[in-house]
Design brief:
The structure is a single chain. The protein is an alpha+beta fold and 254 residues long. It has 2 domains: 45 residues, LysM domain (Membrane-bound Lytic Murein Transglycosylase D, Chain A, Roll); 167 residues, Alpha-Beta Complex (endopeptidase fold (from Nostoc punctiforme)). Helices cover 21% and strands 26% of the residues. The protein is built from 6 helices and 15 strands. The strands form 5 sheets. Strands 10-15-11-12-13-14 form a 6-stranded antiparallel β-sheet. A hairpin with a 2-residue loop joins strand 13 and strand 14. The chain is globular.
Amino acid sequence: MFKKVLIVTALTFSFASTAAASTDTLYEVKKGDTLSKIAKVYKVSVKDLQIWNKLTKDSIYVKQRLVVQKPVTANVPAKVTTPVVATKPATQAQTGKVVQPVQVKAEQLITSPESIEAEAKALSASGQAVYSTLVDFAKLLEGTPYLYAGNTIAGFDCSGFIHFVHMQAGLNITRQSSESYFTQSATVSDPVVGDLVFFENTYKEGISHMGIYIGDDQFIHAGSKGVEIAKLSNVYWKEHFVSFKRFHAVSVEK
């Protein structure tokens, strides 16, 4: 694992797909910068910057990276209602560990909680749009430091990274742990770029880490040294690999 530092002060990245496009700009804070100065340059409000970067106060620090342009999400079909339902405890076959009930949106449960090991369905049109956006955006964040429970470009943990890039790509999911995400996705035997990859028994027993498959035996994840690209054939990851999976919300519905 190698820590990388993003040197460019302003990065603009554009994505295009048949469904929609998403553009985000990351700005690296320099000495003398303030939120008001940055807001003026990018013609946005200080409040916008605080909301987009989940800042609770005005203070910022040198080399901090800020989203300075409103995220434009992929055109995922909206649901009329989004009732919340609780899943039943699920037992993971790999470890025998019981996963506690989690709160998820009903729209995410295209298959029942009891069939989490079933083969994933093909990607929907909106799912393809999400995948084409999230992989490129994830790569843009390479070098972002590790931060326990982190869920912003100031720092990520593994599931926080997954949540952030999927939200930026247009998939509205709740912030949860890697083992909870494991129960809300279906197994993939023939993964495509953008699918999830899960690992077990890393820093704790059971499902404990996850990343995004980017092809060529590689995945991108928020590891202990930050967001990085790693090889699945690496001895460590090979020993802890569990499966490729796919969120139900990006699959073709019944």
